[in-house]
Amino acid sequence: MRAAVVRSFDSPPRYEEFPTPVPGDGQILVDVLASGLHPRVRSGADGTHYTSDGRLPLVPGVDGVGRLPDGRHVYFVADDDAPGTLAERALLDPRRSIPLPENADPVTVAAAMNPAMSSWVALRRRISFRAGQSVLVLGATGNAGQMAVQIARHLGAESVVAAGRDPERLERLTGLGATRTVSLAGDPEEAADRLGEAAADVDVVIDYTWGRPTERAIPALLTRRADRSAALDWIQIGSTAGPDITLPSFVLRAANLRILGSGQGSLTAAGIVAELPSLVEELVAGSFTVGTRAVPLSEVEAAWTEPADPARRVVFTP
Ligand SMILES: NC(=O)c1ccc[n+]([C@@H]2O[C@H](COP(=O)([O-])OP(=O)(O)OC[C@H]3O[C@@H](n4cnc5c(N)ncnc54)[C@H](OP(=O)(O)O)[C@@H]3O)[C@@H](O)[C@H]2O)c1
After folding, report:
1. Of the options 3.30.1330.130, 3.40.1710.10, 3.90.180.10, 3.40.630.30, the CATH number for the domain spanning 2-100+288-317
2. Residue 8 CA, ligand 1 centroid: distance in Å
3. Which helix (H) or strand (E) holds 116?
4. Which CATH class, in words, describes the domain spanning 114-261?
5. Which residue of 114, 240, 244, 266 sits with most ligand 1 atoms within 8 Å of its CB, as the best mutation to test the pocket?
6. E strands of the chain, at which residues?
7. CA of 138 to the centre of ligand 1 (A)
8. What separation in Å is there between the alpha carbon of 206 and the centre of ligand 1?
């Protein structure tokens, strides 16, 4: 088969021949129709993801839309130890796949599921989110953040504060449901002050940045909170601004702050998969705006090195 093949962690994948994987017990070989270039795909391909075992060559790709031998379409998440989905063929584990309705567009599904499920699953499984609550999306200008703004409103958030750096994408979030936007650009202390003024009393933070923006945002919000005993669920999901923070101990004593994460591990694979059919239903119904750019897999090397456009997820079509 043809696939995107990584032979060195320093170089982008190239479109080459690769042995077609052989299904093991319970696995099914599917034709891949569409597969997204998510941040997790890049970290797998450059060897920096924590699941990387350093073995090369490898085929990157963590999920996609596939066609079963009987012609039906499915969305599936690849096993960590199987060749990835940026290929003409991939192995499917039925426990990590869901059927797609006939009218589901493979490119839209492949683009949206990974970024969308981050907030969909977090709000539905990790906390007891209730309609009428208020949400801050920290790092709202990426693909996952843009979906989180829409999903929080869709699930009943009364208000959503969207915070991010890029002014154009931030502006567009108002049309996607943000009730207020806050720029994280410029002087970091001033940005934290703006955030504290705008979001001090939210019930939930969906955090894609971590690092310095989070480190500054936590005290900025909590010190301005009208009722510090009111619960604040801070859901850690991404780390675009850095893997670590320093947290002063007083913030945990002085306010009802509950920091938790959402992702594979804090949720079981079965728990995540159980949430996917309802998300697909909303995607197919057109409940969310999804930016996509379909690229033939044969052009993977060029697309990989182009500057990313966070308004549109690249989806490879073999
Ligand atoms: N746990 C999960 O289930 C899960 C699922 C999906 C994604 N994620 C994670 O969520 C994060 C976002 O994913 P994505 O798909 O949205 O990626 P993306 O589309 O590439 O967006 C990333 C955005 O991060 C922003 N950013 C980068 N550096 C920043 C900084 N220093 N401060 C503030 N913002 C910064 C950029 O927006 P600006 O240009 O506006 O700054 C960029 O558009 C990644 O870390 C990803 O691995 C987690």
Report:
1. 3.90.180.10
2. 25
3. helix 106-121
4. alpha beta
5. 240
6. 2-5, 14-17, 28-36, 63-67, 73-77, 89-92, 97-99, 134-138, 159-164, 180-183, 204-207, 232-236, 257-261, 292-296, 313-317
7. 10
8. 12
Ligand 1, atom 26: nearest CA belongs to which residue? 240
pLDDT in tens, 229-284: 999 999 999 999 999 999 999 999 999 999 999 998 999 989 999 999 999 999 99
Which tokens is 190 given?
Answer: 């001033």
What mean pLDDT do residues 8-33 have? Answer: 97
How many residues comprise the chain?
318
| Residue closest by Cα to atom 31 of ligand 1 | 241
Separation of CA 185 and ligand 1 centre (Å): 15
